[in-house]
Amino acid sequence: MKEQVSSTSWEGSVIEGRLSRNLARYTLLLDKIATLSQVDKLSEVIANDYAEQSKQLSTFVQESQSSLNKQSRKLELQRTDLTTTLTHFHETVSTISSSNTRAKAIHDDIETVDQERALVDKTLQFVRDVRTLKNNISLAHSALETKDYLVAATAINEIRNLPDKKLIVSEFAKKVVPSSEIPEEPSILIKNWCKELTGLFQEHFMKATRTQNIKELTLMFKMFPMIGQDVLGLDLYSKYVCDIIADESRKIMSNSMENSTKFQGFFSQVLLHLFKIVSTIINDHSKVIATCYGKQHMVHVMEKVEKEADLQASLVLDIFIETRKLDRTISDINEWERLQKNNDRNKGSNQSDSETDEEAQQGSVTSIHDLAVLIVEFSQILQNWSMYARFYSVKWNEFTDLHPDILQPPPPIADGKFALKLKQDGILDDFQVLVLSHLHRSFKNSIPLEELPSLNDLITTVPLSDNDRNSYPVTSVLDDLILLVRKNLISAVNTGQFELLSSFLNEVVKFFQNEFLVRFMQNKFKSLQSKLTPNISLKRYIPKGEEQSSASNAYASSRSVSPPANKFSPLSRFTFRGAAASALTNIQSNLQAVVADDEDSILALHHYLIYLNTLYLNKMYVHRLLSIEILEDDSQKILKDNFPFNNDAAQLQTLIVNSEKLVLEQTDKLSKWAVKYLFQNILQNKVRNLLAAVFVNINPSNSSTSNQKNMSRDNSAGVNQKNYITSIEDFEDLSQINSFNNKWNQLITPYRNILHKEAYVELLSNIVGYIVGTLEQRIWTLEFNELGVTKLDRELSLFIGNICGLHYNLREMFLKLTQIVLLLGLDDDSFDLTTGDIKDDFDGTFDWVITSQKRIKARSMKIDRRQ
C-alpha cells in the first residue's frame, strides 16, 4: 500500500513538472513573437500540448481512483477482522472475570477450613496440655508422698515447660485438674511445691557439702533448675567450689609453710596447684552446668570462681613477698646501686676501688645466687598466672559463644584483684629491678674473672681452614654476658607480661651500649692502643723467662696439637683447638723478633685482636639470641604462646627486631673504629713498604735511549723507575709480584687465622682501599710499551687474586685500575683520533668509572701507540 501511494505522488509530481516547463517555454516564445504566423504556430503548439496534457491527466485520475478504491476495500476487510478479534477479547475477559470470582470463593472456603482446623488443633493441644498437667500433678503428689524428689522435680519441670504458660491459671484447668485427693488449684499447688522443694534441696545440698557426698550433691545441683531455682543452684554451687579452692589453698599453705623458706619455688608451686584446681573445676563441672542449666550460665559460675581464685592468689603473692623479704631485697639493691654510683664518682679520688667495692658488697645482703633463685621463682609465679589467664579467657569466649580474631582478657581477669595488684602495687616493677640488678652485678663480677685465650698456635704462615678450628678466640666476658642476658631474658619472656618484656628489652639495649660496648670494650681498646707501637709485628708472645725454653722446643711445639677445647655451642665460651705446623725458619725468625719487640706490646696486640673477635662474635650471638631463638623458632612459637592477648606478640616482635638492630648498629660502629685504628697504626706502614717494590721497572737498561730521560725514582722505593718498558727477555720475569705475594702472605695470614671472617674482611677492606689509592697514583706516573701493558695485566691479576682471594666484593675496588689497564691494552683503532677518547660504539659496551679526560690520559701513557 505504501508503494502505491508513493507511485501516485511520483506521477503527480512529474505532471506538475511538465506544466511548469511548458509554461516557461510559452513565456519565452511569446517574448520572441514578431509575426502573425508565429502566433498561429504558438497557438497550435499550445493546443497540442493541451490535448496531450488533458489525456495524461485523465489517465492519472483514473489510475488514482482505481488505486484509492483498492485501498478502501482493504481497509474494510481489516476493519471486519478487527471487529472479530475484539469480540473474542470481550469473551475472554468475561471468562477471566468469572474465574476470579470462583477462585475467590474457593480461597475463602480454604481460609475458613484452615481457621477451623487451627482452632481444633489449639483445642486439642490445650486438652492434651491439661491432661499432661493433671497427670504430672498426680505424679508429683505421689512422688512427694514417697519422697522421690527426682520424680517430683521432673514432673514439676515438665509442667513449667508447657508451651502455654497461662494454662495453669486458666478457668478450665481450675475446674478439671483438681480432684478429691488434690483439691488445690494447679498454680497454687505448683508454687507451694516449688517453695517446699527449694528448702529441701538447699538443706540436702548443704548436708552433702559437709559430708562430701558427691553423688547427693550432684543430684541436688541438677534438680534446682527443674523447680525454677537456677540462680540459687548456681550460687550454692559457686560457694561450694570457692570453699574447695579456699580449703585446698589453706591446706597447701599450712602443710608446707614451715619448710617454705628452704624449699625454693614453693610459692610458684602453690599458685600452680591453685590454678590447676580452678582449671579442673571449670573443665569438669562445665559439662553438668551446660546440660542442666545451659552453657550460658557457666559465665556466672566462672565470675564467682575467679573472685575466690583472685583472693587466694593475692594471698599467696603477699606471703611470698613477706617470706622472701622482697621489700628488703629491693631496698638493698637500691643501696647497692647508690654505692656503685659513689664508686664511679670516687674513681681518681683518694678512696681506692677495692675499698668502694668492699663497701658495696657489705651493703648488699642478698647474694647473686639467692637473687637468681628469687628471680626464677618470681618468674614462675607470673608465668603460672599468665597461663591461667589465657586458659580462663579461652573458656570465657567458649561459654559466651564469642569468636574474636584477637584474644582479649575478660573483665574478671583484666579487672581482677590479682591483676590490679601486679600493676598498682608495683610488683612488676620490683621484678624488673631484680632482673636488672642480677644482670649488672653478675656482669660486673665476671670482669675480674676474665680469661683470654692464647693466640700462639694461630700465629703461623700456614692458612687455617674452618675444619682446623672449633671457634674464634674471644674473651670469656662475652660468653658470661650472653649467658646472663639469655637467662634473664628467659625469665622475662616466661612471665607472659607485655610490660615486663618490652621494658626489659629497652634496658638490655642500654646495657649493651653503656656497660659492654662503652665501659668495657671501648675502654679495653683505648687502654691497649696506648701500648701498641707502630713497628710492632704480630708474633708469638713468649715472656722473658720462657724465651730460652721456648726456643729449644719451638720446632716440637709447632708440630704439636693444641689442648682440647669444649665443644662448640652457640652460647658457650669459645675456645680454639688445633694449630697448623709452620716452618722452622719462620719460628726462628719469630723468636728473634720477640726478643727485639717489647713483650707488653705483643701481648697488647694479641688482646686487641681477641677483643676485635669479641665484637664480631657479639653481633652473631645477639642475632642468635633474639631473632633465631625467639622469632624464628616456628616449633615453639614463644611469643604467641606467652603473649596471646591483644596484639602483644606482634608488637614485641617489632620491638625485638628494633632492639637487635640498635645493638648491632652500635657494635658495628665500634668494631669499624677498632679495625680502622689497627690498620692505620699497625699495618699501614708495613703495607706501604710492601707496595714499594711492585709495578715498577727496575731494569732500565731494556728501555730505549729516548725513553730513559723520562725515568725518575719513586719517592717510596728509592730505586723504582717511572717507566714500565718491558722487553722479551724480562717479560716472563714475575719476581717482583711473587716476592710481594710471599711477603704479603707472611704478613696477613696470622691475622686471617685469628680474626673472625667479618673482622678480617673489614680489615682487608681498609687495606685494599689504601692499596688502590697508592697504586692508582703510581700507575698514572708510568709509561708503557705493548709488552709492558701485557705484563702489567698479568701482574695486576696475580696481585688482586692473592690479596682478595674469594672476597669478590673487594675485587670491585680495583675496578678503576683494571679499566686503566684495559684502556692501555686497546688497539689504536678503538680510539677516536680527533678527540683522543675511545669511540662511541665501543664506549657503550662498558660501565666506565673513569672520566673521558682520564681515558685520554691513559692512552697517552703508552709510548708505542700510533700517532
TrEMBL record:
Gene3D superfamilies: 1.20.58.1970. One of its GO terms (cellular component) is Golgi membrane. Residues 341-362 are annotated as: Disordered. It holds the Pfam family COG4_m. Its main location: Golgi. InterPro entries: COG4, COG4_C, COG4_M, COG4_N. Keywords: Golgi apparatus, Membrane, Protein transport, Transport. Coiled coil: none annotated. It is a peripheral membrane protein. One of its GO terms (biological process) is protein transport. The keyword Coiled coil does not apply. SMART domains: Cog4 (SM00762). Residues 190-526 form the COG4 transport protein middle alpha-helical bundle domain. It comes from the Eukaryota. Belongs to the COG4 family. This is Conserved oligomeric Golgi complex subunit 4. It comes from Saccharomyces pastorianus (Lager yeast). The lineage of its organism: Eukaryota, Fungi, Dikarya, Ascomycota, Saccharomycotina.
